[in-house]
Each structure stands twice: as C-alpha cells, then as structure tokens.
Description:
- Chain A contains eleven helices and 13 strands.
- By secondary structure, chain A is α/β, with parallel strands linked by helices.
- A three-stranded antiparallel sheet of chain B has the order 1-3-2.
- In chain B, helix 2 runs parallel beside helix 6 and helix 4 runs parallel beside helix 8.
- At the A-B interface, helix 1, helix 2 and helix 3 of A face helix 1 and helix 5 of B.
Amino acid sequence: MTEFQPPPPDAAPTPQLAPALGLSATGLSRSFGEVHAVVGMDLHVPAGQVTALIGPNGAGKTTLLLMLASLLAPDTGTISVMGIDPVKDPVAARARIGWMPDTLGVWETLTAREILATMARFYHLPKGQIPGRVAELLELVNLTALADRKARVLSRGQQQRLSLARALVHDPDVLLLDEPASGLDPGSRVALRSILRTLAGQGKAVLVSSHVLAELDEIADGAVFVNQGRSVLAQSVAQAAGQGRSYSIAALDPDSLAAALASLGLAFEQGTGRRDSVRVAVGSEEHAAKLLRDLVAAGVDVCSFAPAAGALEETYMSMKVEQQ
Amino acid sequence: MTMTQEGSTPQPALEPGTGGFGGYVDGVLGVVGMEMRQRLRSRGWYILLGLWFVIIGIVTGLTWWSWLVQERNNQMWDMAGDRSGPGPLIFELVLAFVLLFGLLVAPALSANAVNGDRAAGTLAILQVTLLRPGQILWGKFLASWIAGLGFLVASVPFLLFAIVQGGLGFTQILVALVMLGIEIGVVCALGVGISALANRPLFSIVVTYLVVAVFVFGTLIAFGLGSMVSEGPVRANQMGFQDVYYENYSDAKAGDPMPIPPGVTDQEGDRYCYGPLQEQTTVRTDRVAWMLAMNPFVVVADSIPYGRASADRQRPEGIFEIISQGARYAQAGPDATYPCANGKLDTGYLDQQTPLWPLGLGLQLLVAAGIVALGWRAVRTPAGKLPRGTRVA
C-alpha cells in the first residue's frame, strides 16, 4: 500500500476546465476481453507544453495513446483533441494529431522521401507544397543524406527519426509520441529534445511516453504517472524537483562523512552506485544546500554531492510500481 | 459539434486539401501507387512471373506438339476431317491453364494485403491519416488486381501464338481475356477482404485458397449432390421413332413406314412425341444450376461467344463449348431437356441460348462484396471490438 494507490474507479472524475486547446481525456477505460488495459484514466496535455507519460511496462500507456490517436474506441470516457472528439469525428481529429507509434512501421522498400511524400498526400497537403515540406522534415530529423535510400537499410535510430518526421508531416497541433527516444544515439536524443521543445514553443501539445526519465526531466513540463491502467499522479516537473528526494554524497574519507551525518541526526544508507557513496533523503533543495554547508562546516571533505536520481525518476521509484 | 477545421487554434501552415469524390479517388490512387511501388521492388513478383511464363510456355508447346502428332496419325488413317488447325485447341488449353494459375496466384498476391501491413505496423499509420477505410481497401484491392493482371499480360504471347495458328475470332479472344481479368479480380477482392478479417497472413492466404477451391471444386460437388436430392415432377408424354417395316407384315411391305400412333404433339425428323401428358419424376437440375454457375471455369467458358456457324453444327466444338452447353443444359432443366417434356421434343446441342455466366459472376461478386464489406468493418477506426489477439499497432 503506497500513497500513490489509484483512486477507486467509481470516484467522480475531477471536473476539467474543458480546455479547447491541447488534449484532454476524462475517465477513459478500455478492456480487451478480460484484460482491463485502461481503467478510468484522466489526462490533460496543455498546448505549448511537453507532458511526459510515465509508467511501467504494461501500465496501459500504449493503449491510452492508441485511444488518443483515434485508432481505438474507449469503452467509456471522453477525449478532446483541440475541442474535437476523435470518436465522433475522427477525420477532423486526425488532421490535428501526429502519432508516432512504438512499433516503427516503415515500408521497407520505399525510400524515406517517398514515405513522407505519400503521407503528406494522405493528409491532403496541396501537391505543390509536398516536396518542399518533405525536404524540410528530412532536414529537421537529419535524414537528408539518406533520403533516397530504402527504409530497409536505415538503422533503428534512423527509422525512429523517419517515424518522427512522418508524425510531423501535416504540422499537427497535438503530438503523441510513444517511446520516441528508444534506439536513438546521444546526438539524436539531444536533437529530439530540441525538436520537442521547439514544437512546444510553437504552441503544440506534446505527449511523450518514455522510460528514459532523466531525459524527461530536461524536456517535460509536466508528467502523468500511470500504473495498472490508471493515472495515479499528475505532477509538474517543478513540483517533482521541489519534492523530497535522495541525494548521493561522497567524501574523501567515508568514515568522517558517516560520523558527520550521524551527528546531524540524519539517516543514511549505502549508495548503489560504483563509487563509495551514501544516500540521504532530503526534504527540499533548500535543505540540500543547508546540508552541504553543514557537512563542509563539520570538516568533511565532500567531493560529490548531487541528487541520486532525476526528479521524475524519484517520483517513479517512490510509486513502487509493479512491473508487469 | 461546431468545432471544425476552422477552430480557434492557430491554423496549420499547411492547409488540408479538399475531400469529395476527387479526393477519395486521389487517396485510393495514392494507396495503389504505394502498393505497386513495393510490389515492383520485390523480387518475388518477378520470380513468379518468370515461372508463370515458363509454365504457360511448356503447356502451349506440349499442346501444339500433341496436335502435330495427332494430325499425323489422322492423315495416316485418312481421318483428317474438317479440323481447321491447332489454334482453338491451344487457345482453350492455354486459357484454361491461365485461369487455373490465375486462381492459384491471386490469393498469394492479395490475401496478405491488410494483415501483412498490420503485422508490419504500417496499417495503423495509414489509419491515422485522413484516409478512409474504404480507400485503404480499394487501393489494396486495385494494386493486387493490377499485379494479377500482370500475369495475364505475360500469357498474351502464347494466346497470340494460338491466334496465329488460326481458328478463333478476335471477339472470342477479347471476351476471354476480359473474363479472365474479372475472375482474377474477384479472387483478389476475396483475398483482400479475408486479409482484413484474419489475424495472420498465412491463415488468410490458406482461407482464400479454400474459398477458391470451393468455387472451383465445391460448386461441382454441390451441384452433383444437389441434383441428386432435387427431384421434381415434369409433365411429359411418350417419345416414338418413325420406323419402317423390315419385312412384309400383314398388309404392309418391307420398307413401308410404321403407323404413327394418334395424338402426336411434336414431330421432327424421325422422332415424335405422342400420347397424353403424364407427371413423371426426374432430376430438376435447374434448381441447383446456380451452384454450377459460380464455377470460374463455367463463367469464363459460358461467356465466350460460340465459334463459327454454330447453328449448322450438331456437336459443340472444343472444351469451352462443351462446358458452356453442359451448364446451360443443367440450367434449362427438364422442362427443356427431358424427352417430350410438355409434349415437345428435346432440343439438340447448342440450342441452349440463355447464358448462365451473368448469374454466376453476379453471385461471385456478391460473395466477394460481402467479404470485403466485413473486412471494411474490421479496418474502421476508432476500433470497437477487436478480434482476439489483435494489436492495433
């Protein structure tokens, strides 16, 4: 029993402020036979922000994204994509949604340029604009040099970038990205980060599901944690950073560090990392600064003092979720 | 529901284009283009085409050879008769083989169109675009049909060879090619529909083969069994033959005609019908002929116009005419074919004028359309109920 237990499903959903901008979902449920993949999920992805969708494998993230992308009808609940209900009017919603699935889904014998041009055609872009738009996207995801190679020969990361470009082809207002960073090399990750920040800066609502939580600390404005098909917590990254978290501290002389911590009355445990460090739970960033000052004043030669984990990772780990 | 494309949000820099019929067709053509490009770039299609070409070539060569041998034997025994050349024989055999192979190849070309994409994760990507499910299915069907027609084109050289060998009219060849194309199209539609319904490509290909087998063999078996159980009455009287006395008998001399009994209702040549009409039990093939009509070979054979001067001939010429007449005979039923039914003499060969193929083709199209409609339901999104074990993406 953790403090993040999901609310009972019959609890009244929190009233939303009916935001026409961005993406919101209320009370979404979907089951596949006996499996309740999503149970009463609420979600709000404001325009102009990057929202992270975080949860263990099997938490219902992909099912949720499929419903938001208008591919799967929810059993109950409502979705609003820029004010449009994708169940009632999927075509209007799809013009606003860019979806990047976790499966790569590339046409192996087509070239990157052909795939993007065909997608642009399927999104009814004017014919004259298509070549320019395709070139622009290829440049954006740094695939220009490989544009006329068959998608089969692209590496996983390159296919991932192609998939991102494909999701952006019709300049959607809402972006749904399922694990966009998996398989990307560090350079591409940095590029992805800046692309997503730019898109949010343009006023788009971006929802990113990922397991790379440290990454999300950098790019996300807020996060929604899901577990066992329910949304268990919505938190802004600022809140996450402000909450209590554990710090990893190392000193030249571990014994004097331990003695100092004990004299300050703080509980600590041995760290899990390679270095000989300890972990201390700290209430806030102010407390952390004070602790460092106290340790230095006590004559401990502190050589490393940093949050043990990213802010979102901290929240995630404190959820004590069950891996499924 | 007043929220439309012109919502309160900043307009996308790229304006979505128009819909309407032109937009619908453009989407279909887009899918066709995408599919064709992939097919043309896969080696499998070319290998199949090459094999096809070689096999049809062998069939043509063997047919021609066998005709040459037979012709020599006929000359030896002075039985050359009125045969006009190997053209019709080669044409019909090649056509029959092309139809057979077409029915075998079409499922392979079509029956993984939708679930193959589903497995590769590309179907969902099409589904989230502004494409409608109908456009996806039309595009995939047309692409597989075009690929199938490629095989027909590859067999044209051999049909031309048959034409050069003489014997068949241009109309017959044209009709035959068109009907072959349509039959391949029917199987492609079946394949695409089944592939939208079934989860795995292998399963849908096998099911499509089974459906083709039902059309080719099942219809024959069903017709045969069906005619056994569909007995029915027909009103007929007696048939008699005008005969002559072989030796002197009573007042008559040898060679005098025998007397015809009273009450003759129809007479032609030395045959006549006489006596009161009586109800007799016979096989009412007309009730089950529709099953036979669905057979692709019957459809093609029956649609080809009969050869020269059919009215003068007492026997059908060539396998397709035999198939066609047999099927029409079954369709006409005992009222037209039972001896002295309704007091009329039965008619000879080549007299059954009512074509059967529109019924058969219509039924085939109905089955294909039904399966495609079910498939259409399965690719609609947002998806409601999903078949067990299906992943949307």
